[in-house]
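for the writeup, i need someone to sanity check this before i put it in the appendix. the sequnce is what the collaborator sent (i think, or maybe the updated version? ugh). structure was predicted straight from it, no edits. if anything looks off just tell me and ill rerun, i have time this weekend
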Amino acid sequence: MKKYRNFIIFSLTIAFVSCSEVPTSFPYVPPANANYEQPPMLSWISKFGLDSFFKINILRGADSGYVALFAKDGHLIHATAKGFADIESEIPMQVNTRFRIASMTKPVTAVAILKLMEEGKLKLDDPINLYLPNANDMTVAVSQSAGVDGKIETRPLNKQITIFDLLTFRSGIGDEKGKSDLGKLWGENYIFSGQGSLEERVNKIMRVPLYEDPGETWRYGWSTDLLARIVEVVSGATFDVYLENEIFKPLGMLNTNFLSMETNQKSIAEVYSKENGNLIHIVEPRSNPLDWTPGSSGLVSSASDYMRFALMLWNQGTYNGIKILSPESIGLMTQTHVKEGVLVGQVEGVGFGLGVGVVIDSEKSVSVDRDGDFWWSGFYGTHFFVSPQTNLVGVIMTQNQPAKGSSFPGSYGVYIAPIFAFWGI
């Protein structure tokens, strides 16, 4: 937090960027729980500071624009939209602007799996070969370096991957970013490359040797894509149809669907990136799933839609009288199952639950998190958090693709913004 204090104080001193504006209208997001009274709105100084911070970032070309919603005790207490959804066409950000939310798809996938578990259709300790027969042939690399013949030596797995391993990102499955010979092999089998259905793409990556035996190491990768395919096998519905019927429609998330379902991509905020200090328009964003429905990415949503999902998590699985999960499943999802090795080199003080990061040492965080807060983010600059201690929930969105090869986010603004909300409650 100290790292950003001077910048935040500076933000608070520029009254001219906020004082004369008409307040942003609240989107329609019903309270999560009628038993909680409407709390006070976010304090004026926090609203002023947040809007000033956003405007400074936009003026200096850090991001094109932002939408941010905050709720307390299940009620919205602040909404703001600043900047442009499309700079070239001068289309402003609005509270219902839709965004590519990328990895914020992962918590949704986790909820789908937990819902099937509650219905008795699967168990978390089930080996995945019960649902994905090709998993019987999976191997693990003996070394990440290729032999003299240019091949990766492999051996059979010590144990089958379980659904729990996939949910906790300890499956041994990688992604395209590795630098070793094994990493390059995963890159050659990039799940977003080429064409194919969810089933075909999952079958492709199951032929690549794992980095380590299941259950050993937290690793960011494509575990949730296997979970999405398991949802299809178990439910008998395609992944998009299952999410629509079991999560989105019940929660009233009417503006949420997969990118592959879009008929007019101009209805989505444009993606930008920093290049040589300038914000440039990205015509073809990376990891852009136009013909399939991943479990790891691919959803398009608005801050107001995702707030409904986040409030459901805050309210122990029920939103506005609609039950999606039991409190026991929410507790399981937000429990710290992995305490070491999560987002090493990027974020400190974080463990991992089932599809979400969990704060385990708030003193190490650059933000003002509390222990037990849980959150996740998306590749293009989207972020949500739930703080059980304070009953604060936030959704902040922009569209800023990280620089190629960078392990850091394109936008830091979405991570700093919650500081203002915590200060203002």
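Residues 41 and 77 are 4 Å apart (CA to CA). The two ends are 17 Å apart (CA to CA).
thx in advance!!
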